[in-house]
Amino acid sequence: MSAPRLMPYGDRAVLVDLDGTDEVLAWADALRADPPEGLGEVVPGGSTVLVVAAEGASTATLRAALEARRPGRAAATAEPDGGLVEIPVRYDGPDLADVAELTGLSPDEVVAAHTGQTWRVAFGGFAPGFGYLLGEDHRLRVPRRGRSRTAVPAGAVALADDYTGVYPRESPGGWQLIGHTDLTMWDLRRDPPAVLTPGARVRFVEER
């Protein structure tokens, strides 16, 4: 891992610019496991970690603590957090056959690969409750669709690039749809509202 690039972000945060999602996960895990003085919130992204200072804390002190951190050590010592979430899925998505063709797997092998690994929620985005999940089996890496759909139903389970995700509500989308879950991914009556929070480990379970 290379040294992080630290940039001021407003008057209460520091943006840690990294080389990829693996580094983001390592830094986010390390900051949660061993928070520096003045840490308020950790917000991971695709290649950045936004580190927000606690109310009244010195941003300069927080930045100095971040500059003293060693990325390699962060990756080696941090433990994943967030618990294990199981999501039941019916693998009947309209793009399952296309994903099989793109990956060189059969549809059953696509399902076995999707359910046979533990995924990590790297970061959230796109819509409230949508998590970008990274897996262990790179055979499922597929491109986005050439043309986005105008309406993807809530609960659609999808693949795109290195990620899998679950659409929390009906919305346009260009990911490859391989299945569907009835689990409500975003509910303001829950605490937290999102089923998938950054750092959580996820297993998809086939529902017949």
Low-pLDDT parts are 72-80
- Beta-sheet strand percentage? 25-35%
In the CATH hierarchy, the third-tier topology of the largest domain is known as Cyclophilin
Work out the radius of gyration: 18 Å
Number of DSSP-assigned strands:
13
Number of domains: 2
What is the average of the pLDDT values?
89
Helix content: 10-25%
Write up what this structure looks like.
The protein has 208 residues and is an alpha+beta fold. It folds into 2 domains: 5-77, Gyrase A, domain 2 (2-Layer Sandwich), CATH 3.30.1360; 84-206, Cyclophilin-like (Cyclophilin, Beta Barrel). The chain has 5 helices and 13 strands. The protein has a 7-stranded mixed β-sheet with strand order 5-13-6-7-10-9-12. It has a 4-stranded antiparallel β-sheet with strand order 1-2-4-3, with helices on one face. The longest helix has 13 residues, at 21-33. Mean pLDDT is 89; it is low at 72-80.
Give the SSE layout.
Layout: E1 5-9, E2 13-17, H1 21-33, E3 39-44, E4 48-53, H2 59-67, H3 71-77, E5 84-89, H4 96-103, H5 107-115, E6 119-124, E7 131-134, E8 149-152, E9 156-160, E10 163-166, E11 171-173, E12 176-180, E13 201-206
Parallel strand pairs: 5-13
Antiparallel strand pairs: 1-2, 2-4, 3-4, 6-7, 6-13, 7-10, 8-11, 9-10, 9-12
Helix pairs in contact: 1-3
